[in-house]
Amino acid sequence: MEIVLLELARLKLHEEVDPRALRRLIQEIESDGVLWSPIIVDRENMVVLDGTHRVNALRVLRCRYVCVYLVDYSDSEIGVDRWFRAIPESLDTERAEEIAEALGMELIPLESSRLKDVSYPVLRLRDGSSFAFVPKPDAVNSYDALHGFERRLEAMGYTMDYDTETDAEIKLTHDAVSAILQPPVLGKEQVVATAVQGRVLSCKATRHVIPGHPVGVDVPLTLLRDHEINIEEANARLAELIQRKRTENMPPGTVWRGRRYDENTRLFADEVGQGTGTPRDTTLCPRSSGEASPGRSLLTGKRERRYEKCRI
Considering the domain 1-80+188-243, what is its CATH architecture? Predict the structure, then answer.
C-alpha cells in the first residue's frame, strides 16, 4: 500500500464540487486539524479518483502537500460506479417533462429491465415509472445533460442527496424520496481523458470502488501546510506517523464518517493505550437521531459532532 505525500498542485480533477459541501468540509478539516483519509490517485496520470472535495478544501486552506494513496487504475479490481441523486421534494412526470423540454431534451419511457448500466441518464419516479434522457449522446455528454437537469431542479428549490444505488433504491421503495436520478456509468478511459484534458464532469460523477480503501490516517494540517520542508522530509514525517498506527481490515458495509463503503476498507488507528485506539468491533456510524455525540472521535481524539460508535 503506497501512501505518500505529493505536491498538491500535481493532482488532476475530473469532477466539479458542491459549494455548500465544500464550505462545510473546509470548516471540519480546519477545526479537526487533520486530513482524515488519503486521496485516492491514479499513479500513472495523477488523476483524483476519490477525494475531489478534500483536494479543493486543501487548496483553500493553502496546503502545499496532500496525502494520497497511489493505485494502479488499470487494476481490474478497481471499479467505476456512480452516485445516485435522491430527490425528496415532490417531482412527478409532468414537472419532469416541463424541465426536460425547457432544456431541449425529451423523456422517453423506459422498461425496468433496461435500467441497469445504460449509457444515458435515467429518471426513476416513486410511482414506478422510469424515463431516459434523449437524444442518446455518449456518456460524457450525457453527464452534461444530467448536469443541466440538476441545475434546473436546484434553481426551482429542489435538493438532492448523493447515495449508493442500494441506498437510493431503498429510499425510493419506502417513499422517503419522490424520485432518483440515475447517472450513466463512465469507463476508466473517459475519467482519465476528462481530467487530462482539463475538463470536469458534474459533482459526484463517479464512485470508485477501491479494495482496501484506507481511512483514518489523520495527517496533521500543519504538515500539509508546511512550506519550509522539502518533499523528502515531509514523507519521512508521514512514515513516522504511519508507523505509530495499527491497521485493521474492515468488511464491506463499514460506515466511516457518514459514508458506507461497499468494498473492504483498511482502518488506521492509534495503538491501544495511546488514548485514541478504535475497539476491534466498532466503527463510526451516522447517528440516527441527528444529535451530537457527547464522546470524542474514536480515530482522532477530536470532538466528534455527527458520529457515534456502533457495532458492525
Answer: Alpha-Beta Complex (3.90)
